[in-house]
Hints:
The protein is mostly beta strands. About 5% of the residues lie in helices and about 45% in strands.
Amino acid sequence: MTFSVRSINLDCSAIDDATGQTVAYVTPQGWVDWLLREPGQPGEHLESIDKETHLGNVRGLKFNLHVQHPSTGTIRGIDIRTSAQGNKVIVSAQSTRDNGLRAECRAELGVSADTGRYEWHLVTRLECTSPTPLDLPWIEYNNILPAATGGRFLFERRKKFNRFLIEDKDGVVWEFPHQHVLDYRPYNGGQERKPIPLRGAAGNWGGFFGEAWNPVLTVDACDGEPCWGICDAYLDFHCSTRFNRAMQPGEARTWRYHIHWLDADQAKQLQANARRYPVSEADWKERSGARLGLGFNDFRKSVQLDGVDEGSAFIPDGRERFWEKSGGPDNHGIVKMVSGKPGELIWPAAIINPTQMPSASRLRIRGKMRVEGDCRLFFRLRPHIFSWRPKPHVDWLPVVCSKPVGDTAGRWVEFAVPEYARTAREVDTELAIELVLDGPGTGSMSSLDVVLEDV
């Protein structure tokens, strides 16, 4: 197997196999989108891309060449070359911030002698450039996400993978079913979950499971205490390390690891004896809410925190936002907002609100509302997209709202959100979904129906 490297548009580089199939491409922002897992797999010769990879726009499996931390600055250049024999590709990147950190990453693509599949072997190194000790409680040295994994409830018919597995220091495999309401980020300050104790220097592994082929990251050597996280938004894998002291001037820390694929038989062996990560009573109390998903929404049901569930949720706070599991025009439960002042009271769907809108699809939402007082109640979609250029930012698109409903004199009335559609090329639209009460009064919603169709 030999590789070649060529330039494509948007300052990206494509890595091709000997037949011209594109195995991966690298963006100038330091993201690798890995398209093929093994030689001979059907693929394409990638001539161009519409937009660089980001969390809402992944074709294969993405990982980073850039340690994303305020102390590292922006990436300063990427070097891509093949080995003398042409059987490996070496990608190098670095970033530096004065009085902060110098970050270097080396990623080597080759074919495993054991499995015959492609593998990436990476080395990430941080060096303290500050003249004084740098407080660094934890650092995320990489972030991994396969395509079609974390789109949330509008994406559930296209979703891939349904759980995450991590092996602890005692060889116990822990299972984290995919859902978008309860995160697992034990390094996240005051929002800590019970951490899984990982091996110290080497041997840790974690990955995405539930498909015929399953991507896994294995650590070969590392400095610090491994402390991995799984986000409840995109379900991306936060490869992190916790430290118990500050970094000294000139001190360096290094991680060596590789990313590889397991077939269904290998994955089945690991899943067979996996233990499900426990959800505490406090978690249920904090994160239970009226489930929002495709089809008719029965607000008597909560999102499943301890199982696979792509749903979002209207999570009550017991002060201005309430969830009643009975009542409503069809006795399917109610979400209700109460405000005592002018202005908008907003109830976003879930802790991590946006859901990705699939390309080539159209969305229709309708339901019933009851309103009391000098207020208006409406359902709002706020579409937006992430863009890298000229610098990273979010572009907010025109909002889409149902017609505001005023006082209904105790009756339930129907409402509908105007149809919203995306073309085949609009691949990374996110929707912030909100129920909005404008003004003092009480607004309730029930019998919500969400229809998504391919176009």
